[in-house]
Amino acid sequence: MGELRDNTTVNVSAAMQEAATIGRADPARRPAMATTLARAFHDDPVFTWVLRADQRRGRMLERGFELFLRKLWMEQEETYTTAAVAGVAVWELPGRWKVTPAQQLRLAPAMVRIFGRHLPRVLRALAVLERGHPTEPHYYLAFLGVDPRWQGRGLGGALLAPILETCDRESTPAFLEASSPRNRALYERHGFAATEEFTLGRSAPPQWRMWREPRPGHAAGAPPPSAAAVRPAAEHAGRS
Q1: What is the pLDDT of residues 190-199, one digit of tens each?
Q2: pTM of this prediction?
């Protein structure tokens, strides 16, 4: 767990070089991507509420992300990372965001093992997210996570760029749920607008459903990384 909480930062020059390596994720990097997402979301307000008062939260997140990457997300081939796996953007294709009953059955035994007593709360959270999900075809940002050591250097915005460019080229909207005001501000800078504030349950922190209309001819890439560019992005969205 000590490794998950190492918050030593990297410099801006290294972040600029890392951003230049963004591409579709190799399935062989799945364990490393799960670790990066777990580090990014360890102190996220929503995950802290869902997996409350459990010192094993980091390990549960790591195992959970590995499961979903392996069983759901990687097969859609729209997960992006960097050479050092400094950040991960998990996108789902239009019409592919909803977990089918067959997929739920396949996931159930592993989810019981991973989340244990927290599973009922996890399932209720997923149900709330599903009920508020738009039906119009769109690309769905399930998660955007940047390792704490790399946050605040523009990598979150850079990881958004490949699919936002696709959205603009194909005239397809994008959707996500932001789990903190800081994340919401990041997405607003990239063309998303909040459509609704909601919570997963009593005492849960606020989240925001956010929608982005395509912008043909607009450069979707993030601003160049700089010391004052993008604030730390622990997340995205989606199932958070």
Answers
A1: 999 999 999 9
A2: 0.85
